[in-house]
Amino acid sequence: MTDTIVAAPITRRQQIVQAPIRHRGRRRVVDATMTGILAAVMIACVAVLLWVLGYVASIGLQFLGPEFLTQTPPGNPADAGGGFVNGIIGSVEIVGIATAIAVPLGMSAAVLIVEYGGRLARWVSFLTDVLVGVPTIVTGAFVYAIWVTQFGFSGLAGAVALALVMLPLVIRSTAEMLRLVPAELREASLALGVTKARTITSIVLPTARTGVITGVMLAVARAMGETAPLLLTALGNDLFTEVNPTHRMSTLSLQIFGSAITGYKAAQARAWAGALTLIAIVLIATIVARLASRRTFTSGR
Amino acid sequence: MTTPEPTNVPVKIRTVVTERAPSDISGLENETIDAALPGRTGSRVEIRDLSAFYGSHLAVTGVNLIVEPTEVTALIGPSGCGKSTVLRCVNGMHLNTPTGRVQGQVLIDDINILGKGVDPVLVRRNVGMVFQRPNPFPTMSIYDNVVAGLRLGRRGRRTSEYDDIVEVSLTRAGLWPEVKDRLKAAGSSLSGGQQQRLCIARALAVEPRVLLMDEPCSALDPISTLVIEDLIAELKASYTIIIVTHNMQQAARVSDTTAFLTVPGLGQAGALVEIGPTSRIFSNPNEKATEDYITGKVG
Ligand SMILES: Nc1ncnc2c1ncn2[C@@H]1O[C@H](COP(=O)(O)OP(=O)(O)OP(=O)(O)O)[C@@H](O)[C@H]1O
Ligand SMILES: [Mg+2]
């Protein structure tokens, strides 16, 4: 019986009061739709990431063993077994040297751009933008022309090439993080009678620390995977383990590339294991950097 | 208001205010520490014909005022009249803004700190500043925030003295009882009012002679405001204080002298309208503009 009741005419006042309620249904729908779309996009992104990781891991793990981490590749690439220890050492060493070159230089350049400004800073900023756009094979060719033709192939030449790849990334990310530091903190420090240089080293950089480290780690990860600039500089060396960076060296990326393009199943298997190792090294480095950048308040009573 | 990043100022090295003997705080271990530093007073501040520019824009002009040591001067006036700009000229911070320029003089103990050859770092060692928004250093503990000026400014204090300095400064800022058990906690873990008192403690730890406060209570509740007003009353024996405030009652309560600035017309530069003893400014101002502002008719 209740469904026969006719609603009383709605007054203007009731309209206003009920307005939000009338739209509530539509809002719910919009809310649910947008949430659904965003969730789907997120799932898609994470899924691709997990797919890549899972795929590499599933194949790489079949061939990854203690042998892989302790031996050099077999003389005949068609043979099974052997490992990439020389490439692991080469990658860590070359990227380590490249980081040691690129981080101090890049951070100084970012400080110049953000904290000091002026004509020189504008030039550095411009050159950074140019350097970002240079294809890495060109960077390799450049280092080949000015370095390798004089001193020959070496891990050091590879490190210089990688440093050139990392430099603009470090400058840009660091500059971005420095810009996020509130001007009030700088003023608070200056107002205490602290010099500008000390304000930068003790207030601005520590405040930006977490973001700067993230940026550096992205650059390190990028350098770890770079192959093109190393082809013309570090060249590669699969015969024995080389630790002297003034000689030609292998890296994981070079070995993955070299093994993957052979037709041999055994070599391709090593390439998969190498790819997994590369991901693991980057992951470990990132975690270590994260832990190291944890805020601590050490001094005090 | 935007506060652009500081840049280098082309003025360098010369001692501005004669170095004073470090005050003796060793006898202050007991619980009740007086905010005043016995046997010392603030500096005399004199502003002569000051005009401040941002690029070609004249922000404030024709400011003349004298602040005697041990006095509190309040700057009042409508938003945008240049109160903060004047304040920032007194510690040379205005010259740190990329486009900041000044004409005129700011004399601290008869030395023109806006003159050529004056090292802004030395000026700021003697002129402390508390900002409108609390800005403790986020990467530092409460303890480190208080001694930041000593540590980073290389003020020649031994690390063994820091514990005492931290306790004295926090006590003078009225924050000690609340934080004495958590000195290692992050400075940013405090409430807004506590953070502001931490910033005051930080400014007091380097023992400036002049203390500039730019609306120090605007982000605070009435109780924290009263704490800081009481503090100002105690500090004025040892520090010259210039305070900017939008709160008339506060200006009336804490200051001895009040200066009223205003913008005479749209697009014009801010200017000093009237300065005088606070009691007279609030009871019997000479200028109509002052009276209108104080009684709430404008601004
Ligand atoms: N960084 C800046 N760049 C350019 N102009 C500025 C800058 N800071 C302030 N101004 C201008 O200078 C004038 C005075 O500003 P100031 O901040 O001194 O005002 P105020 O009296 O402190 O105002 P409020 O009470 O709102 O804090 C304003 O017209 C403002 O637009
Ligand atoms: Mg202001």
TrEMBL record, chain A:
Membrane-traversing stretches: 36-64, 84-114, 126-147, 153-171, 271-292
Function text: Part of the binding-protein-dependent transport system for phosphate; probably responsible for the translocation of the substrate across the membrane.
Keyword match Transmembrane helix: yes
Family listed: Belongs to the binding-protein-dependent transport system permease family. CysTW subfamily.
SUPFAM superfamilies, alphabetized: MetI-like
Record organism: Fodinicola feengrottensis
Record carries keyword GTP-binding: no
Compartments (UniProt record): Cell membrane
Membrane-related topology note: Multi-pass membrane protein
Protein name, entry field: Phosphate transport system permease protein PstA
InterPro entries from the UniProt entry: MetI-like, MetI-like_sf, Phosphate_PstA, Phosphate_transprt_permease
Domain of life: Bacteria
Lineage per the UniProt record: Bacteria, Bacillati, Actinomycetota, Actinomycetes, Mycobacteriales
From TrEMBL, chain B:
Top-rank lineage group of the source organism: Bacteria
Pfam families recorded: ABC_tran
SMART domains given in the database record: AAA
Swiss-Prot/TrEMBL keywords: ATP-binding, Nucleotide-binding, Translocase, Transport
UniProt domain ABC transporter: residue ranges: 45-294
Protein name, UniProt field: Phosphate ABC transporter ATP-binding protein PstB
Cross-referenced PROSITE patterns: ABC_TRANSPORTER_1, ABC_TRANSPORTER_2
Keyword Translocase in record: yes
A molecular-function term among this protein's GO annotations: ATP binding
Coiled coil: none
